[in-house]
Amino acid sequence: MNTLRHRAAPAAALQSAPFLFQGPTGAIGASGPLQPLPRGPIATLPDRIAKAMQHIPPSGIIGGALPFERDGDDCLWLAEQTHHTPLDPRLPPEATLTWSVTPEPSAEDYAASVAQALTLMERHASLPDPLRKIVLARTLALSADRAIPVASVLARLAQDASVTAFQVALPDTTDNAQPRTLIGASPELLLRKTGAEILSHPLAGSAKRRADPEQDRAAAQALAASAKDLREHAIVVEFILDILTPHCRTLTAPSGPEITSSDTMWHLGTPIKGTLKDPDTPSVLIASLLHPTPAVCGAPRDRAAQLIRQLEPVARDFYAGSVGWTDATGDGAWYVTIRCAEIQGHRARLYAGAGIVPGSVPALEAAETGAKFGALLRALGLAHDMAIPTETN
Ligand SMILES: C=C(O[C@@H]1C=C(C(=O)O)C=C[C@H]1O)C(=O)O
């Protein structure tokens, strides 16, 4: 992807783009005439994509967001042109918004749900195919005294060169509502397809980055040696290999995870590489087979999803879904929708989750989710660690 050829567009000009992504491999987004794809669940996606692929011009792109729930309606567009214009790194003056922040649920209630999930796992351990992992999330409901400047928040998220910053326009909730936008900085690649080659780079197992370099290195080393995190991670890799195997001629993964990082978090990550049997399958369809992986849902998938619905007080909507794009050849990239917020006017809802396996400690999982809000909080001009309960900070 050639990003040098293009001059940066003013952030405001890109604010209305229905989808755009900027990460280590460059910037890509929709431009030109646009039409929404009919909305629907994953079960009808192959049909809807096949129809859209009949009409896509060679320079076109399909992109948008899949929700967390496989039977929820997605939000995809077909744009006749693709742009590769990077976000303008020159930020407008420091925003001075005044905020109110309400955790929903509170960190204490979240920890109580984690404890409940652990009890259930223990009680079901002797049943056939027991629940082995569940990812539980919490949210922060933010309200500012003015409209949130989406474009400059996105530009700030994109300053972390190790993540993919994204923006996707979401369907309006009511007829005359203000536009809803999903923005985020995903560190996790669900699936990239280039010709017959595919790459998935799941993350699971996390530790907060530290300001002090020695403590920061120690946190990474402790993560790499944590049996609990290695178990949590292995469940995701096993799931992805199982799903991809029937679709691949070759499929390889290293025997253990590597340490990866964003500006705010350390993670365990495993690059899984494959060659597709049918290289014409559009990337969004392979991504939709994988989604949601146990990195954001759990194992077994359906049982975890059901318990998530029971234990989480706020619906996930597009959080823990997938955002991405597919071009006219079917190539594309789909990311796990994490480290994200839904923004509407002066309100934002931030989401963060953590994988729970036997051995997880509720208060530490509350702290981990608190740290995962950091990238968004900082981009909004708030203290990155304000959601980490003080006794664990
Ligand atoms: C669920 C989230 O992150 C996921 C969960 C992780 C974990 O439990 O260690 C790590 C990376 C992500 O796959 C999130 O950030 O909201």
Bound molecules: the ligand C=C(O[C@@H]1C=C(C(=O)O)C=C[C@H]1O)C(=O)O
Chain-averaged pLDDT: 93
Distance between the termini: 40 Å
What is the helix/strand order? Answer: HEEHEEEHEHEEEEEHHEEEEHEHEEEEHH
Tell me about the biggest sheet? 17 strands, antiparallel
**DSSP strand content:** 25-35%
Protein name: isochorismate synthase
Enzyme class: isomerase
Organism: Pseudooceanicola spongiae
EC number: 5.4.4.2
Write up this protein.
The chain has helices at residues 11-14, 45-55, 107-124, 150-157, 213-224, 227-244, 283-290, 301-311, 362-372, 374-379; strands at residues 19-23, 26-36, 61-66, 75-83, 99-104, 133-144, 164-170, 180-186, 189-194, 197-201, 203-208, 248-252, 258-261, 265-269, 272-276, 298-299, 322-327, 332-336, 340-344, 347-356. By secondary structure, it is an alpha+beta fold. The protein has a 17-stranded antiparallel β-sheet that branches. A 3-stranded antiparallel β-sheet has the order 11-14-13. A hairpin with an 8-residue loop joins β3 (61-66) and β4 (75-83). α3 (107-124) crosses α9 (362-372). Mean pLDDT is 93; it is low at 1-15. The structure holds the ligand C=C(O[C@@H]1C=C(C(=O)O)C=C[C@H]1O)C(=O)O. The ligand C=C(O[C@@H]1C=C(C(=O)O)C=C[C@H]1O)C(=O)O binds at residues 135, 137, 188, 203-206, 267, 295-296, 338-339, 351-355, 372. It catalyses: chorismate = isochorismate. It comes from Pseudooceanicola spongiae.
